[in-house]
TrEMBL record:
InterPro entries: NDR1-like. This is Late embryogenesis abundant protein LEA-2 subgroup domain-containing protein. It is found in: Membrane. The chain crosses the membrane at residues 7-29. One of its GO terms (cellular component) is membrane. Keywords: Membrane, Transmembrane, Transmembrane helix. Its main location: membrane. GO terms for biological process: defense response to other organism.
Length: 190
């Protein structure tokens, strides 16, 4: 009889230890932050990207741009959702200068292991760049190849999250339109 009790006691002790370890692991898992989302650019539609000269100020060129961009946001976490606590703000830069204002993607909740396509419109009218990138942009536009960065900002669980996505746009004479060049290094945000 005593032996049975001591077996039961040992079994109970083992069960208690297993549950404590389980609870500790669960709490540690729940409180560790999820891995950040992975962004990539899947499309850039260029509606406008050109210099406009101010008729009253010939020397002062202005730049107009209008893009629609499609981003893929992937939640790499197998078990954790990602909450975007603020809208995703997207804007385009060239040579470190803003060439569009911000496009917005509404805040959303992304379940574990899920991917979403985010679409934003970026508009820049009468953007004045400093001289150096302006000349480079002019040269690149004429050459039909422009390297931009798409900057994305949002807030995840109270922490700001920023990635930039290098994108190469190329002018295709046959279609008379700009389109995104897809290569291994381009379009991946980090
Ligand atoms: C570029 O745009 C971002 C986002 O709107 C803004 O925070 C930043 O101040 C701008 N930079 C300049 C130089 O205007
Ligand atoms: C463009 O912006 C400049 C100032 O940077 C301003 O003087 C000019 O009137 C603007 N042109 C248009 C067409 O809005």
């Amino acid at each position: 009889m005593r032996k049975v009790f001591s077996y039961l006691f040992a079994l109970l002790a083992v069960l208690v230890i297993i549950s404590i370890v389980g609870v500790v692991l669960f709490v540690a898992f729940r409180s560790s932050p999820p891995s950040p989302p992975q962004f990539s650019v899947i499309a850039v539609d260029v509606y406008r990207m050109s210099f406009v000269s101010d008729p009253f100020q010939q020397s002062n060129l202005h730049f107009d741009a209008f893009f629609r961009v499609g981003l893929l946001a992937r939640n790499p976490n197998k078990w954790k959702a990602i909450s975007y606590d603020s809208p995703v703000h997207v804007y385009a830069t060239f040579g470190g200068q803003n060439i569009t204002g911000e496009g917005f993607i509404h805040q959303f909740h992304q379940p574990a292991d899920d991917s979403n396509v985010l679409v934003a419109s970026l508009a820049g009218f009468n953007m004045t760049a400093t001289m150096a990138p302006q000349e480079q942009l002019w040269t690149d536009l004429v050459a039909g190849r422009v390297e931009l960065e798409l900057e994305c900002d949002t807030i995840l669980k109270g922490k700001s999250f920023h990635v930039d996505c290098p994108v190469v746009l190329q002018y295709i004479p046959e279609t008379q339109a700009w389109s995104m060049q897809n290569t291994a290094q381009h379009g991946i945000c980090g």
